[in-house]
């Protein structure tokens, strides 16, 4: 039996960040990983898709180059080359993770619990007063007849060719990011979303903006669509049967992509460790990320609290006793245009009968946005009516994922809308849009 201070299972962003920080704090740390370091984020998620998003963005820019006074004498789209670039980016970053884990003993293999705070990998057995489960998640299966004909996000990222027509089931974060990439590379894309609006956790006005913007780029989105059956004809084409607003419809397509959520990846032997699950099948944790077994923690997708890479890393910092504000969690979708949010949506404020005011400012009123030729979208800021605390911010538009961060800082630092409005924002910058929306909300809250 090998003794150490902390065992981390899974080398995704939750696991590798926690193990590296633990080692930097002087702890004897072991990390167990059965696959490549970097987890879903680096190998099958955030990073490879962001590399493809960038290729998609370049494709659109070149296509529209003439509008900017640049003539191109024809161009070709090479998805395989974009995939090669993606793989190179991933490879380089993977090396960065290996370097980061320099002070941590890495054990390659499948970890399973054999008892309380005891983990076996092959013939080796490890024990520590602290065990962190950071095993992540995998694509959830689509519940429809013929669902095995659909490819999930992992398999899509293994392909280096795109068919002419693609139907995506699920208009969530993954579905919309793929829709944006595939459309930019010339495929005809349809999205079937079960809910009333795409991106269910997002503010509805923002999600609708994105849906409209994607429509203008040729992506056909159907909401309130329930997929019942997928079938394949002799010519290899697929049919997707679905019901929308009481009517039965069919889309004929070349490929069906399933992006209907993710489910936890659970290590074996959780019962031996005394780790219990929630009703939804995730690992139950308390506010300090401790499971029902003392000394055993679970962070990231596997606990189902917030399926975001940075949330996993932040939860790991909580375990190590660092001060982290988990209540203010920015998130973004890397579509064209991007969407980002932090805090409460307007519907959440309305449902909770929180007294609030919401103000919106469009990117069209912003000099920098107009000058760049990409003024699609808006910023919405929600402020408490009496205390003028910033309750939420929602952005659809270029660089939304970066712009949201300023508001996150203000929320954590408890900067109210009046104080925020007093901050001078540089000109011409997109951040002026955020400042203008905050100022508008502040004035509305003060009734002026
Ligand atoms: P999701 O939960 O965000 O979206 C799934 C969508 O599929 C939902 O809109 C849901 O209503 C819809 N759906 C479910 N069953 C359906 C059906 N039978 N027919 C039609 N629609 C159906 O899940 P996801 O997009 O798979 O992403 C998984 C997780 O990964 C999310 O929690 C997400 O936050 C995270 N993620 C984040 C990022 C990012 O931050 N940029 C990127 C990718 C993934």
Automatic annotation (TrEMBL):
Signal sequence region: none
Cellular component terms (Gene Ontology): cytoplasm
Q: What is its EC number?
A: 1.8.1.4
All copies of the FAD/NAD(P)-binding domain together span: 5-316
Q: What class of enzyme is it?
A: oxidoreductase
Q: Which GO terms describe its biological process?
A: 2-oxoglutarate metabolic process
Q: Which GO terms describe its molecular function?
A: dihydrolipoyl dehydrogenase (NADH) activity; flavin adenine dinucleotide binding
Q: Which Gene3D superfamilies match?
A: 3.30.390.30, FAD/NAD(P)-binding domain
Q: Provide the cofactor note recorded for this chain's UniProt entry.
A: Binds 1 FAD per subunit.
Which cofactor(s) does the record list? FAD
Q: Which InterPro entries match?
A: Class-I_Pyr_Nuc-Dis_Oxidored, FAD/NAD-bd_sf, FAD/NAD-binding_dom, FAD/NAD-linked_Rdtase_dimer_sf, Lipoamide_DH, Pyr_nuc-diS_OxRdtase, Pyr_nucl-diS_OxRdtase_dimer, Pyr_OxRdtase_I_AS
Binding-site list for NAD(+): 170-177, 193, 261
**Ligand binding (FAD):** 50, 135-137, 301, 307-310
Q: Where is the active site?
A: 427
Under Pfam families, the record lists:
Pyr_redox_2 (PF07992), Pyr_redox_dim (PF02852)
Pinpoint the Pyridine nucleotide-disulphide oxidoreductase dimerisation domain residues. 329-435
Q: Which UniProt keywords apply?
A: Disulfide bond, FAD, Flavoprotein, NAD, Nucleotide-binding, Oxidoreductase, Redox-active center
Enumerate the catalysed reactions.
N(6)-[(R)-dihydrolipoyl]-L-lysyl-[protein] + NAD(+) = N(6)-[(R)-lipoyl]-L-lysyl-[protein] + NADH + H(+)
Q: Which cysteines are joined by disulfide bonds?
A: 41-46
- Please tell me what else the database record remarks about this protein: The active site is a redox-active disulfide bond.
User: Belongs to which family?
Assistant: Belongs to the class-I pyridine nucleotide-disulfide oxidoreductase family.
- Output this protein's name: Dihydrolipoyl dehydrogenase
Q: Which gene encodes it?
A: lpdA
